[in-house]
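Case study 2.
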Amino acid sequence: MSAWIAAAVLLAGAAAFAAAGMLYARRRVATLEDWITARGTLGPGAGVATLVASGMGAWILFGPAEAATWGGIAAVAGYAIGSAAPLFVFVALGVRLRRLMPEGHSLGEYVRLRYGPVMHALTLAVTLFYLVIFLTAEMTGMALIAGLVTGLPLWATAVAVMTATLAYTGYGGLRASIFTDGIQFLLMVPLLVWLVVAAWQALGGAGPGVAALAERAPQLLDPLTAVGLEGGLTLIIAILLTNLFHQGYWQRVFAARDERSLRTGFIVAGVVVFPIVFAMGLFGLAFVAVDAPGEASTAVFAVVLEALPAWAGLVLILLGLVLVMSSADTILNAVASLIAVDLQHVRPAADGARRMRVARLAILALAVPVVAVAAQGFSVLYLFLLADLLCAAAAFPVFYGLYNPHYSERAAVWSLLAGLAAGAALFPAPDLSGGSLLGAFVLAATVPAAVSLAWPRRAEPFDFAGLRTAVRPIAE
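Prediction:
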């Protein structure tokens, strides 16, 4: 395919999303509250669209299929369950936090008020590390998609997509992100359905593929293999606990119109996400069945480009653009919101307008190293796994305090550190040799729970009612 045609499609699509987001936000974003919260504006339908679009990134074109090539159907199921499960868990956690902090902005606000500065700093570091790695992976994924399909330079794709995303995210904030998510959702789902159906038909349906796979790698069809079960359980634990710290999801908790909208949005989004991730994982099985060329991480592209006409590459470019911009704008806005909210404690005198300027400059500065890394095509898998380990260790200490008023900051901090130390002891080396990912994540998640439950109770119970008055809308 001509690189010029692909570049034109890429630039036109990115510019169209940027223009749509900026035009929508013009007259709708007047304050910092509008920019980072969009409080009470998200109905059930828009909630489903923005949650699916913001959660589905370029990773669905790489991760699930690659997992299928070594873990088979069990790993595919684990990836799908792990991706959908956080959305269901957010129903309980989101409703609880909204009731305690109806004027809230982030998970970090709750942690600071519930525990104190040390636990707040740890949680903020974990969240930001995860979000930055996620953003880097998304930009790398888009650059690789364009490079695989057309040979476009990685740096050109990364710069174009990041520039367009920064334009409407920096200008319109969360409102622009939610609006463009709706458009991207309406494009994403039909494109994914077309991709799966077209590849299915081109490969002759399930029969030949299953027969070839049964002959070439029968273990991948067995859901009870040790490798598959271990991989599936690892993915469920890692993805579930990590996504609980996704500030983009927490922003949408507070943006929901009411509790009914919150519940409907997250539940339906979870139902939609599961089949999407599962279907993309099946490309990995097809990759093995047809003995397609290339690496396991690019299984989707190897199957599609081998089985479909050359123009299907344009569909992959557009699909990748939709997936990446819908997730990247969410991450950029999430980082900006954390900075704007926490700047209040660093510079108490800073008003909303100044905090918005600082947050905009911060995401602009962040974009430079992210694009630089994405332009190299480096894998950030190991860093992603480290972020998963950090989130797994922090999950119980952070959320146990939502329900137990006698849980102290000291107990939370030491529980988190104990879980991190236990998980690190089994964590593999950078080349993923040695250790055990499943063992590391299990220990990181369970040791904090054990330490927390054994820790002496806080003498004076925490006053949850005080959260309602402690968190107020940001003054302009």
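DSSP finds 18 helices and no strands in the chain.
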